[in-house]
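INFO batch 0412 | record 1 of 1 | parsing
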Amino acid sequence: MIPSLPLLALLLAPADPAAATAAPDAAPAAPDAAPAAPDAAPTTVQSRYGVGLPPPSQPGTSTAPQPGTTTATTSATTPTAPAPAPAQDGGWRLNPPGRWYALRASAEIGFVGVVKHGIQFGKDGSYFDFRNQGGQDVLFPFFRFTGEFAIKDRHSLIFLIQPLKLKSTATLDRDLQVDRTLFPRNTPMAFKYDFGFYRFGYMYDLLKHPEQELGIGLALQIRNATIDFASRDGELLATNRNIGVVPLVKLRGRWTPKRGQGFWLGAEIDGAYIRGKVISGTRDYFEGALLDASLRAGFKVPRAGDVFVNVRYVGGGARGTDSTPKDGNDGYAENWLHTMALSLGLYIR
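INFO prediction complete | emitting tokens
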């Protein structure tokens, strides 16, 4: 049986109407073409021409979102990391870490007592016991201040102010000859012994540890002395005033135990001894000595410095003749003073 023409045209038409529309004059398929697989997916415009499909992924590539892009799901499920907190400022510090220099200061306040003090002015003058005859058998205020400029933790320039003023009154139990002035027995007297000094020094620390110290150096002391003997009625006065320079050797140490929890021990010695003619710079025999020595125990207080208790000996004196005397005096003088001081101190570093 031969099929009709309409049925034959329907069988030979292409499956996609759009293809028939796009190519109306296309030639009919070859009669020996292989039939399509019965379970193949239906052919569409999108699958045939690639319209509306995402680009095929390449092997080895990731489909994760690119950096800088966000999605609704990511923003909804991933919490935003908090910004790092700014570093807290430790506050103002006198000596910040890493600086090539440092400023340090210490102050002591307490009392000082005279252990022994003898003095004589003039070869014919009286040797006077200041402690037992001049009212220096009591305690006097004690104060000293030290400033330091440290360079790279090893070199230190040190400046010291040490007042030492002893004022007392007494009634003479015997005649007192001071140079050419005679104070009769039973004269009410007022005494002033002012022997304050200023000291400039340099010290080098042999140890590198910041909490341990063994320093050696030199110092130059300038004394500013005023010694007055005066009757209470103002009729008689003998005074001796002098400014002098004394070179000193300086030693200082500090020991901090490893498990001391801030506790430390320290010691300091400044001293000199001069004897003879040439070395003292005079034409006559001269002998002089000075010793400033202390032992201390302290405790480091955070953000406050170091507090310490200090026991100090300050003493010395001189004996000799001034080659250029004044006011008709013979220039001879002898003066030896020994004191002990107990003080509380604060060290800022």
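INFO post-check: The longest strand covers residues 101-121.
INFO record closed
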